[in-house]
Amino acid sequence: GKVHDARVVRNSGLFRRLQEGIYFPDQKITVGDVEMPIVILGDPAYPLMPWLMKPYTGALDSSKELFNYRLSKCRMVVECAFGRLKGHWRSLLTRSDLSETNIPIVIAACCVLYNLCESKGETFMAGWEVEANCLAAAYAQPD
Fold first, then answer.
1. At 62, phi and psi to the nearest 5?
2. Strand runs (DSSP E) across the chain, as ranges?
3. pLDDT tens, position by position, 61-70
4. Sign of the C-alpha dihedral, residues 91, 133, 80, 46?
């Protein structure tokens, strides 16, 4: 849309709930033998928060550059996943009039259905994502 994602997030109920610790308060997952906090990935425009991982800025040493590179790769995977979901379910392209509590349920259902399609060999057509991007541009969000 016309407004940067960081601004949309900062003005959302999601941001408030994350700040209040309502969503994943002190929850951790174990990856290998390492316990990790659950975080949202953001770009440099996002504010640094305990629940939001963003790249380092300024003069960087090689370890911070490597971190930024890997974080960027993770964000690309997430962007691709959202693009594929929107390609499958066009209802995710437009404004939702669902209640705020139902939106995560609908998105989770889309993820489950997507995985079911994949497991049954229903291939994703690249043209769907291209078409979804064109439709998303046609339905640009207001300022």
1. -65, -35
2. 28-31, 34-37, 40-41, 52-53
3. 999 999 999 9
4. negative
User: Nearest-CA neighbor of 41 among 71, 19, 67, 20?
Assistant: 71
Whether the Cβ atoms of residue 24 and residue 51 lie closer than 8 Å to each other = yes
φ/ψ (deg, to 5) at 51: -100, 5
Q: How sure is the predictor about 109, in pLDDT bands with cuts at 50, 70 and 90?
A: very high
pTM as predicted: 0.71
The DSSP 8-state label assigned to residue 94 in this structure reads S
CB 141 within 8 A of CB 95: yes
d(Cα 47, Cα 50) in Å, to the nearest integer?
10
Q: Which residue has the tokens 């993820």?
A: 111
- Spatial CB neighbours of 26, under 8 Å, sequence gap ≥ 6: 37
The per-residue pLDDT for range 11-64, each reduced to its tens digit, is 888 888 888 888 877 889 999 999 998 899 999 988 899 899 999 999 999 999
Rounded to whole angstroms, the Cα distance separating 143 from 64 reads 35
